[in-house]
Amino acid sequence: MRGLTAALLVTLLALAGALGSTLFLHRAASAALDRVLEERLRGAGETAARLLAGRRPQPAELRALMAANELEGAYVLDAALEVLADATGPAGGRADLLRVDPARVAEAAAGRSSVALAYAVGDHPIATGYFPIPGEDGRPAAVLALEAGQAFLGARAALSRALGVGVGLAALGALALGALALRWTRLEGRRRLDAERAARGDALARMGAMVAHEIRNPLGVIRGSIELVQARSAAALGARDREALADVLGEVERLRRVSEDFLDLAREPRLATGLVDLCVTAADAARGIAAAFPSLGVSLELPALTVAGDAVRLRQVFTNLLLNAAQAGARSVLLRGAAEGASAVVEVRDDGPGVPPELRARLFEAFATGHREGTGLGLAISRRIVERHGGELRHVAGGPGATFVLRLPLAGG
């Protein structure tokens, strides 16, 4: 029963995450597409209106405008809704009110152009733009109406199909992940000879690895798709569109970092061992955290403490401790260190609210967190990294704030 519950939970979480990402990307892409299509139709209309200024347009000109921009219709009206010229029919007579929006024609006759979905023929949506044509005196003398149909809006149908495919793949992926989780939990149930806490931590780590592997592949597809849109549509995208796509890429990068944290719980990556100055490494971490949390002040009182280890991994430890302080609401952090015998000892103390008593016993377990925005992985990963260097990372009770002590063997000690 427990295995079935865990599998169902993993399935629901995976489905919710995948659907959330798919719908978010669809909304962002749809908004960007709407703006691109509107700007494309507006650009064609405003350019044509300037070319037709001060003279009566001919049907041949309107037909050429339709062909050049793959439009469904092009015609010219006056303020009284009289058809002055039409690329697909005779001129003269009143405009068809089922086809024309009198209010928007009046706006265009007053000098204000507009683009919007007007009507549909079956499942065939028609977007119409109304653009003022200047007369010889520069005032609006007529209104150019352009209709964009299937050829112009076909990208919207492709986007809807992509949404359907994305939702289907998300559901299939969630079911597959749930099946894997169910099989895994059943196998794990036969091996519960170790302590309950160790077994639970290992289970969460492996489940996290499976989730991370499932997330990384679609993240790569999403990143590639967004970069392809940027490359192919750079000229058509406005500043808001580029900003929206940049936001999507930022979310993709955030999810990639979270998946890397999950993987770190289940794997033992090789350490690139070398001589590391903890003072330099801590300073690098402090500069990195300052970019994300400029209000957090970090003070360093560290001498040169050289240890044998992986500089990137040890920088990750300091980054996680500083991030933990920032997310807890600390305003300042002090890193103080010294050599004690054959060990380098660094104390990280912040002025935040400290660690709640109910959380201290499981502070270094995976997914244990008291921060709403935290994942509960940073301290668990940090302790694992330090222990692989032959050191120790512990929390020191007492206040004010939170204090962590890092102890590592000195190089040559």
SS-based structural class?
alpha+beta
What is the fold-level CATH name, i.e. the topology of the domain at 274-409? Heat Shock Protein 90
- With strands numbered from the N-terminus, the spatial order across the biggest sheet is 2-1-5-4-3
The radius of gyration over CA amounts to 31 Å
Mean pLDDT: 79
Poorly predicted regions are none
* CATH class annotation of the domain at 274-409: Alpha Beta
User: Could you spell the SSE succession in H and E letters?
Assistant: HHEEHEEEHHHEHEEHEEHHEE
Shape: elongated
Helix content: 40-55%
Distance between the termini: 52 Å
Number of helices: 10
β-strand number? 12
Give the CATH H-level superfamily of the domain at 274-409: Histidine kinase-like ATPase, C-terminal domain
Strand fraction: 15-25%
What CATH architecture of the domain at 274-409 would you give? Answer: 2-Layer Sandwich
Largest sheet: 5 strands, antiparallel
Structure in words:
With 413 residues, the protein is α+β, with helices and mostly antiparallel strands. Among the domains are: 34-153, PAS domain (Beta-Lactamase), CATH 3.30.450.20; 274-409, Heat Shock Protein 90 (2-Layer Sandwich), CATH 3.30.565.10. Helices cover 54% and strands 19% of the residues. The protein has ten helices and twelve strands. It has helices at 2-51, 59-69, 102-109, 150-189, 196-232, 239-266, 278-292, 311-327, 357-360, 378-388, and strands at residues 73-77, 83-86, 114-121, 124-134, 140-148, 274-277, 297-301, 306-309, 332-340, 343-350, 392-396, 403-409. A five-stranded antiparallel sheet has the order 2-1-5-4-3. Strand 11 (392-396) and strand 12 (403-409) form a beta hairpin. Helix 8 (311-327) packs antiparallel against helix 10. The radius of gyration is 31 Å and the shape is elongated. The protein starts with a helix and ends with a strand. The mean pLDDT is 79.
